[in-house]
Please model this.
Amino acid sequence: MSRPAWDWRLSDLASVQQNGLTVLSCFACGGGSTMGYKRAGYTVLGNVEIDPQMMRIYQRNHNPRFPFLMPIQEFKLLHDSELPAELFNLDILDGSPPCSVFSMSGQREDKWGSEHKFREGQTVQRLDDLFFDFLDVAEKLQPRVIVAENVTGMIRGNARGYVSLVLSRMRELGYRPQLFLLNSATMGVPQKRERIIFVAARSDQDFPPLKLEFNEPPVLYGEVRSGEGTPIGKDRVTYKRWLLRRPSDADVGDITRRTEGRQSSFNTRLLADNKVVNTLLSSSVYLRHDEPCKISDEDIIRIQTFPADYEFMDADVQYVCGMSVPPLMMERIAEQIYMQWFGGNNSEGSDNTD
Model:
């Protein structure tokens, strides 16, 4: 019996048929997108990453030919002679610009235009500028296709004007952009992760409009549940609240609203075997509904469709997974780009090989 798509190993990539198409991944973090492209048969030539810890993990697991440990602002200013020729013949430039300023939680508009430093050792950056820094890289490298992932907060409220600016900039650069709202739960991922995906084809290519429509059956938490979780101390407030849960409670906030008359700890989620897990975030707490414990690392890896043999080294498993695109989600997108654009009669893939 074959394994489900979410149950896989990095070693499985050796048997994937290559399609001859190349990718550079920006804001690569743990390489969720990278693994998705590789699962779809692409060659990921390298990555751009600002975080030294994430770069070490990325290099251990993905062995890129061209790793660039630097802010995207520095990468875009590198002289052409400092870059390998392969990067000027890319099929896809991929990136997931950090998106916390567009999150629907908190006073997000207050963060726009200000500088933030989110991890030790990183440069202070204006996160709402990073998408345009990424597009500056596209202007420099002129890939055939641009793919960018971000949170759905970008298309809600005042942020919709920001999206319009992104789309306008892509057109200025000579690309035909499309914007998709996708839910990973329809793509074989054991998680309801809604994201927007920008896909832009260079205008000199005769590609038809891309269609991204997915309708795979949902994968419930009970199907991926594995390993022992960390018990909640019985002297903790969280444990006492957990005891008061009801089957309909999705998070501890539901419990406190009912029992204390206030919403507290809404980011402490309750996972039931008969439901699909909500978005896996790097900073939230996830408890099993039927036992007083946090979910296991094995759970996290499967929910995010990371491979079972991934080496997290000295990093927190939930942080790496929560900051990454689910590989299976990006694989589904990359497959469609190949089949509808690169794999048909409209165009042929480049001859680059890793």
The longest helix spans residues 327-342. The chain has two domains: 11-215+320-342, 221-317.
